[in-house]
Amino acid sequence: MGVSFGILGPLQVLRDGFPVDPGSRKQQTLLATLLAHANARVSSDVLVEALWADDPPRTARKNIQVYVSALRRLLDGGTGSRIVHQRGGYVLQASPDELDALSFLQRARVGSLTEALDLWRGPALDGFRGVPPIGDAARRLERRFLEVSEDWAEAEIAAGAGAAAIERLTEIAQRHPLRERLRMAQMTALCRAGRRSEALAVYDDLRQALARELGLPPSPALGRFYQSMLREQEDTEPRSAVPRRERSHAPNLLPWDLPNLTGRESEADEVADVLIRGRSGPVVVSGPLGAGKTALAIRVAHRLGDHFSDGRVFVRLRGEDGRLRPLEDAVSQLPFARARTPGGRADPRREWQTWLSQRRALVVLDDARRESEVRPLLPETGESAVIVTARPALTGLEGAYRVRLSTFTPAEALQFLGRVIGSDRVTADRESAERVVAACGLLPLGVRLAAERMAFLRHVPLREYAARIADPGGLVDELCGSDPAVRSRLTEAIGDLPGPAHRAVFRLGTLAEPVFTLQQAAAVLEAETGTAIRLLETLLEAGILTVVGGEGAADTVRYEMPRLPFAVFVSGRHTVFEPVESRWHTGAS
Prior knowledge:
The chain is of the alpha/beta class. The radius of gyration is 26 Å and the shape is globular.
């Protein structure tokens, strides 16, 4: 069996099924932090914060190395195969068979809800929830646990097994008394089991708790259900009071909505309005890497739950390595897959189309590069709708409505910065705050990374941080160092460009400034004007470049490579982009 871990409850380490002592409190905290972010790099800065909060010793990083060595001896005999050092941090590698949280998420995705819930032993990471990096991860797991519990309860009720689910449902509802969807399921199960008086008591408890804690009444749906029980209408179907978006066959398979999403209100309203009006074609949200396309699509999809009563689903078109996922793999976690025969069906596209055509669902297709990647997943008929996020505008996609995102405005960037690091800190040194967001090129991804870094470095004055990132090399070190995926995402952004366009990106990155003219581009590309224009237009279509300002003659247009990608090229670390022989060039069409 080997070593396995449990974080869905108190921290647990098992070897061949038997408990293992994970060591001192500090060592356990480090292990819990790595497990809470399994298979992702946790920077040394985050580990220092987890272990010592605001008062780390001078030897903090050395101590971390000692704790990691001890854990390696415990978990893999000191080989280091389990805990890997990676770019100023550590990655704990685990599979769903080895870590209960990963198994829970996997089972929930494929609809094995009872099996997923059976993995829980108590509050996630119990005993470590006061540690900020751990507490955030624990709360995310708890939120997913509640969603799965609600899906499970509604599925059990729909299958006629609500009476058997009452005990577990009541236990969960008592721990989360203000969760209305959970309370609705509890009341429905009790009512169907002939325990109407207990269902009425649940409503009364909820009404009092909402008034006491939030000053709010129960939702209209709950109020209608309560009135129907009072009238004892035998022909009332209790489940009909459940909002359609919360039915067992109406899944919400969206990632979490970002709480700090700033700006984009007009674009979000535009996308939502188009979807509500029921256009037949998809809505394509395009823009350069880091412009916030995915965040906007997720925000809109969360807002439109009432309009898509048969569910909202999120499809990642690419894997972690940036490669296009096979169609069957991309849709394997989606609702229709639950009804497959054991051997699977021969045509996943037809299976998907059948599911879409019979429902009113909203689908987000994330990170498309070509029209051919999107077409097999678009509904052929019915009321379902699709949002596509893509760097290129996908101009060949028939009937699409297009919304293009650019950078933040200076006001939006400062507003976002204030939300993360505190508006008082921004107001106290607005000039330095403006220099910070300008250094990030007002790109939402760059501003977010800088804000998160400054929130951690609370002791560093804004003016000092602005000086750090004024140089492109400093910008990359600061921002990519705080997010292990950024540098790989930037390099992957040019991974499937044609060879000439790939080499053009490399050469444009040698310019002194990220904004340049056609003449400057042609000179560095060593190309005729016509050839340079075609290369630049290829990069515009791919979302690598943007045009500054409005329309104009070709020789007066100014092009821009967003500052964060540009900084990678001039930071002295651009050898991964070398043309022709580059691994990114391999397989480019």
